Amino acid sequence: MWSRAERELLQILDDLVRKPAALTEIQSISDRLFARLVAEGKSLAKEPVPLGTFGKALPDVIRAGWVYVMRSPSETGTERHPNSRQRTMSLRGRGQFRLRIPGDYRICEHGRRVAPWDSLPMESDPTKPIDARWVSIPQNQWHQAVAAEGDWVMISFHTVTERDLIEEHPPG
Fold this sequence. Notes:
Oligomer: single chain
Strand order of the largest sheet: 1-2-11-4-9
Largest sheet: 5 strands, antiparallel
Distance between the termini: 32 Å
C-alpha cells in the first residue's frame, strides 16, 4: 500500500509519538480538548502540538502537527489539502478515515458525478500493525474522519506549517 520510504517515515513518527514526553504533552492537550467539548457541547476539537514535543529527530518534511479529539458519533466533514500531505495516527479509541477514490466516478440519482469512498478502519493498539493505526493522505485527496463508537483521539502531521495549510471543503 505505501512505499518503503513512506512506511519508514510513519514508523519514525510512530516511535516519536510514543516517547513518554510526547505522550505527556499529547495527553495534556487531549484533556484540554475533551474539557472544551463537554463545556461547549461540541463533538470535534483540535489544537496544534508544538513540534519541539517530538525532539530533534522529527523529520524535516513534518512542518505542523495537531491533536484531534472526536466524540461519537461525529465526523470531520469532507476536506482536502492542496498543499500538504497529511499523516494521521490513531492514539486512543478508534474510528475510520474515508478517502475518495480518485478517478472512480459514478453517476448519482441527481445526475451528478460522484467518487466513492474507501473506508479505512483505524485503531490505537500499539501492538497492531502500522497500517491499522496510521493513514497517509496524499496532497489534494478528499478525506474525512468518522468516530462511530466512543471517543477518538488522533494526531495529524502536515508537510506545511500551520499558517500555510490550506483546507478546502466541497461546495454545497
